[in-house]
Backbone:
């Protein structure tokens, strides 16, 4: 069995749909029959709560993985979507940034902690914090198959996106030669405005071949799903947001060269 893929979902700007993308692309792949793991690497633990777990009561989380107290299998949680699993975050992850600074090989702690995980899942997504911090660098070093970059379409995002690209190149040269952008996903797209279309056009022009064909629409249903602790497919499976994320997942499978699965799951 070929090794699975490890991807980071990253953007230093908050509020661009990063966690929404990580959770829903992962859920779409799981519904298509793949085994998928989400690693919540954000101290806000939004991916954890979005998948129905309370980060305040869990006994073990990714912080304990970084500290070497547990193995990945000790803290992996099942979710309500068959085939979709989670390594949760918790409030204590906020202190990891300070602790990592004094560690040897501090940029590769997460990569080493996840060693072997790619053999157990078809795809692993690491949901990054909204910053270019040491935690994000760890995620980028671990992401041997690339980075998925969500970008909001409400304003011209090229300056921030260019800064992220510069950071990715530094990490690639110093720590992870396999690092690449697997795709840029335009989110919060509003077809009623010229601005959204102009932003998409501008990003496509600056980063040819990297932008996904599908843009994720601005959607009340997508905003509601996290409060119910389920993906968009568990909340509103026939909505425009669900359809869009399903199409993005299909394109991601193509971009990564992942073999098709014969059986689809539901849930």
Residues:
């Amino acid at each position: 069995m070929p090794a699975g893929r490890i991807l980071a979902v990253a953007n230093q700007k908050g509020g661009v749909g990063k966690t929404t993308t990580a959770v829903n692309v992962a859920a779409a792949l799981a519904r298509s029959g793949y085994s998928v793991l989400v690693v919540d690497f954000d101290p806000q633990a939004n991916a954890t709560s979005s998948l129905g777990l309370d980060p305040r009561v869990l006994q073990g989380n990714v912080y304990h993985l970084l500290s070497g107290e547990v193995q990945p299998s000790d803290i992996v949680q099942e979710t309500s979507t068959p085939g979709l699993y989670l390594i949760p975050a918790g409030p204590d992850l906020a202190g990891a940034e300070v602790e990592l600074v004094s560690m040897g090989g501090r940029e590769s702690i997460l990569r080493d902690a996840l060693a072997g995980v790619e053999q157990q899942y078809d795809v692993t997504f690491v949901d990054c914090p909204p910053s270019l911090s040491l935690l994000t660098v760890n995620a980028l070093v671990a992401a041997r198959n690339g980075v998925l970059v969500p970008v909001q379409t409400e304003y011209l995002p090229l300056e921030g996106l260019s800064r992220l690209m510069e950071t990715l190149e530094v990490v690639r040269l110093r720590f992870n030669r396999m690092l690449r952008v697997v795709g840029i996903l335009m989110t919060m797209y509003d077809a009623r405005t010229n601005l959204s279309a102009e932003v998409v056009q501008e990003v496509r022009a600056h980063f040819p071949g990297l932008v996904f064909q599908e843009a994720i629409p601005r959607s009340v249903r997508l905003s509601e799903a996290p409060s119910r602790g389920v993906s968009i497919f568990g909340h509103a499976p026939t909505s425009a947001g669900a359809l869009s994320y399903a199409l993005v997942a299909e394109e991601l499978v193509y971009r990564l060269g992942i073999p098709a699965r014969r059986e689809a799951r539901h849930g």
